[in-house]
Amino acid sequence: MDKVRIGIAGMGNMGQYHANYLMKGEVARAELTAVCSTSPHKLTSYEDKVQIFSDAEAMIRSGSIDAILIATPHYQHTSLGIAAIEQGIHLMVEKPISAHKADAERLIAVAEKHPEIIFGGMFQLRTEPRYLKLKQLIASGELGEIVRMNWIITDWYRTEAYYASGGWRATWKGEGGGVLLNQCLHQLDALQWMIGMPKRVRGFAQLGRFHDIEVEDNVTAYLEYPNGATGVFISSTGEAPGSNRLELAGTRGKVVLENDRIAFTRNESCMLEHSRTSSIGFSKPEVWDVTIPFGNATLPHAILMRNFVEAILDGSPLIAPGKEGIHSVELANVLLYSSLVDQSIDMPMDSKAFEDKLQQLIANSTHEKKVVEISGEDFASSFNR
Ligand SMILES: NC(=O)c1ccc[n+]([C@@H]2O[C@H](COP(=O)([O-])OP(=O)(O)OC[C@H]3O[C@@H](n4cnc5c(N)ncnc54)[C@H](O)[C@@H]3O)[C@@H](O)[C@H]2O)c1
Q: Whose CA is nearest to atom 18 of ligand 1?
């Protein structure tokens, strides 16, 4: 194979966005050959360009694609992902890789039986220089051992019109969660990619606090890490203007990412060592103030697709292996679950217990959804967090 034939399942906002850069040739050695959607009107503009399918399983079996990009609502990620892998089709799945952890385990179990299939997850923040620089700062030991994390990511503001734009959105049955599973899942992935998973969490999630929805749209959570580091993660889709401030404190300094700036305040000596050895009660380690420069990735989704194609054709390592997507799903699930059962939860969480809880929420749902189609023209402006 010298070119990867790609089919997209789900031609809503995200499917169309991916189709657009693929058709412009932004991913060398890839060709968009098919698209599929259960909404026929989303397909008309592609009729004379690629093959059209109304059924994703038919596209998977068609022989017209080598790889699939799944951009459907969350629950279909698992079923279509499994169907694709079993048909020998390489898989790139939009975030979250599944609607809940038990489904992610099912998808990964099938992927592990087929190691010849490349399985990637669309976690484009991993291509952004600001997160790559933070990851490098942590991994190199420059920041010392992490002792505290605070991420306030409340600039995921969404209107009622957004929630009304799809029948699946913000419902237990269609989406499986709210701001944790959808919007700030990107930050949850970046967080665990940079500093690993917590060992215990306590979440406080408000359901429909700012919107007429049944799922969470406002969350404050406490996280505790294996080395004793503590963290607070705050997210919301109802707060405007909102904040995006990530602060990491380590034994060798503190780094803050906010307003397109990384400010690193570097301790000249380890703060623990200073505390043990200083004879002065109120002294602190001296600091250097450093601004770490960075640019923004150009078309970050296309960078991940290029990497996916290179993994298929050349065996290159994936930037965002699909199986790593289980961590962000688990974090989204556990922060919500902890709130629903009003308890701290030890990690790893019991995926069956959460699945049962979700089924209960679905069965007891009385919320009525009014669907109103809206313009998706400003959709891409929401990417850069
Ligand atoms: N990576 C990112 O930056 C990013 C941004 C937005 C959305 N997303 C993700 O992309 C996915 C889609 O979100 P969206 O905003 O485009 O939703 P959307 O509602 O705009 O589009 C979903 C489309 O999927 C179609 N669909 C539903 N079931 C299907 C099936 N079985 N087969 C084929 N098509 C089917 C629907 O008809 C709809 O057109 C979600 O997983 C979402 O979390 C990712």
A: 12
pLDDT at 376 over 70: no
Closest Cα to atom 10 of ligand 1: 71
Homologous superfamily of 126-297+328-382 in CATH?
A: Dihydrodipicolinate Reductase; domain 2 (3.30.360.10)
The rounded Å distance from CA 37 to ligand 1 centre is: 9
Q: For 23-64, write each residue's pLDDT tens digit.
A: 999 999 999 999 999 999 999 999 999 999 999 999 999 999
- Please return the burial class of 366, using the count of CB atoms within 10 Å of its CB with bins 0-12, 13-18 and 19+: exposed
Q: Which residues contact 51 (CB under 8 A, 6 or more apart)?
A: 7, 33, 34, 35, 59, 62, 64
**Please, are residues 267 and 283 in contact by the beta-carbon 8 Å criterion?**
no
Are 132 and 188 spatial neighbours (Cβ–Cβ below 8 Å)? no
Q: In this predicted structure, what is the pLDDT of residue 166? A: 86
* 187 Cβ contact partners less than 8 Å away, ≥ 6 residues apart: 125, 151, 153, 233, 235, 385
Residue among 53, 41, 48, 1 nearest 23 (CA) = 48
Please name every residue paired with 345 in a beta bridge, in sequence order, or none if there are none.
Answer: 201
* CA distances from residue 91 to 7, 52, 104, 176, 322 in whole angstroms, order as listed: 10, 19, 14, 22, 8
The number of the ligand 1 atom at minimal distance from the alpha carbon of 37 is 34
Neighbours of 278 (CB within 10 A): 13
**Structure tokens that stand for 83 in this block:** 């169907």
Mutate which of 60, 94, 126, 383 for ligand 1? The one with the most ligand atoms within 8 Å of its CB, which is 94
Task: Find out whether the beta carbon of 73 lies less than 6 Å from any atom of ligand 1.
Answer: yes
What average pLDDT score do residues 66-94 get?
A: 98
Q: In the chain, which segments carry CATH 3.40.50.720?
A: 4-124+299-320
Q: Where in the chain is the domain with CATH 3.30.360.10?
A: 126-297+328-382
Verify whether ligand 1 is closer than 6 Å to residue 245 (CB atom).
no
Q: Is 108 in the pocket of ligand 1 (CB under 6 A)?
A: no
CATH architecture, range 4-124+299-320: 3-Layer(aba) Sandwich (3.40)
Q: What is the pLDDT of residues 267-306, one digit of tens each?
A: 999 999 999 999 999 999 999 999 999 999 999 999 999 9
CA distance 338 to 131: 28
